[in-house]
Design goal:
Strand order of the largest sheet: 3-2-1-4-5
Distance between the termini: 51 Å
Helix content: 40-55%
Radius of gyration: 16 Å
Strand content: 15-25%
Number of strands: 5
CATH topology: Rossmann fold
Order of helices and strands: HEHEHHEHEHEH
Structural class: alpha/beta
Shape: globular
Number of domains: 1
Length: 147
């Protein structure tokens, strides 16, 4: 990452589970990429998601989620992490811009302190109404679940 910055590249970081990819995810990735030259996506590992969301998640395993993310034109790098938050990853990368969805406030964004301390910015992307993995799961269960 240091080489990228030496080349004058603006490094952007975002993170998430990206369990069932939907339009809301794509919007955040697109807006994140618009903020710089290189977009690094921190991807919660299967182990990490189970800690955060419970034993029934993730729906798709980390290899599939990483492959899908890596194929999106806005994404330059995908980095798996096992912790519940990407704090240590952000500390290591020291991105110029940290991007999250607007369901967070800047003071709630993990790693915001690191980015701001290093002269970077935190950017919140407005969420697309009604787009979430949980809603997709609910809809599938409603349509195809046990009656």
């Amino acid at each position: 990452m240091k080489n990228l910055k030496k080349q004058g590249k603006k490094v952007v970081f975002t993170n998430g589970c990206f369990d069932i990819l939907h339009a809301g995810h794509i919007e955040i990735l697109k807006k994140a990429k618009e903020k710089g030259d290189i977009l690094i996506v921190g991807l919660n590992s299967d182990k990490s998601i189970k800690k955060i969301k419970g034993r029934k998640r993730p729906i798709m395993d980390e290899k599939d989620r990483a492959l899908i993310l890596d194929s999106i034109k806005f994404v330059d790098y995908v980095v798996l992490f096992d912790e519940e938050t990407p704090y240590n990853l952000i500390k290591e990368i020291k991105p110029d811009v940290l991007v999250k969805g607007s369901d967070y406030k800047i003071n709630e964004v993990v790693g915001a302190d690191i980015v701001i301390k290093n002269g970077g910015e935190v950017f919140l992307v407005p969420l697309l109404k009604g787009k979430s993995t949980s809603k997709i799961i609910e809809e599938v269960l409603k349509r195809y679940g046990k009656n």
